[in-house]
Every structure is written in C-alpha cells, then in structure tokens.
Design goal:
The chain is an alpha+beta fold. The chain folds into two domains: 51 residues, no CATH class; 66 residues, no CATH class. The chain is 29% helix and 13% strand.
Length: 117
Amino acid sequence: MSLENTLSALAALSIEPKGSLVHAVACDPASWKAALDGAPASTKAAVPSSYKLTKTLIFKPKTAKNATPVPVVVIASDETDTKNSTALGKRVNQKELRLAGDDLIREFFALDKDSRA
C-alpha cells in the first residue's frame, strides 16, 4: 500500500496524521525506534516527543478442515508478551492459535508476512 493510499484510508476514518517521516526500512522494533530517534532536526516536528511502538500479529485459529479459517489480528504494545498464544486464544475465545502462514496472509490481506504496509 502506498503512502497516499494509507493517508486516504486514514482520512476516510477521520484520522489526521500529525506528520510523516521518510526513513530506511525498519525490519524490527529496535531499528524502527532508531529511525524515529535519529530523525534529522528539520523533521523532528513529525516525530512525537513520546510514542509507543506496536506490533501486529496475525494468527490462524484451529478450524475444521473444510471450514475457512478467519484470522485473528492482534495489535499490541511492543512491550507486551505475546509468546503465549494459548492465553491469547482464551482471551478471544479461540482454540490453538498459531501464527498465520504466508498463504493465509496473502488470501485475506493481499500481503506477505514481511510487509510493512
């Protein structure tokens, strides 16, 4: 998804971005934080003085073989322990959550697991 598409989608939800920042690809929370903290002084207005990093996880719940699985999307603070998928599953009343594979992510979101869109 392009930046323009993302901004249009946010505008449709009445969400107004406070700014934007162009940076190198950030493949993990540490490099994302470094990109934000290392922003040039001229773009510091685009970076909030305080922020929290988040992570988005997509799980596939246990379903019958002939049923279409409906993914469970979890958006959590980066600091939140999300390793115990059994506890997450209980919280959303689903059994045996497993991280979704590329096929499920492509089918539902038209993205691959490494997408940053």
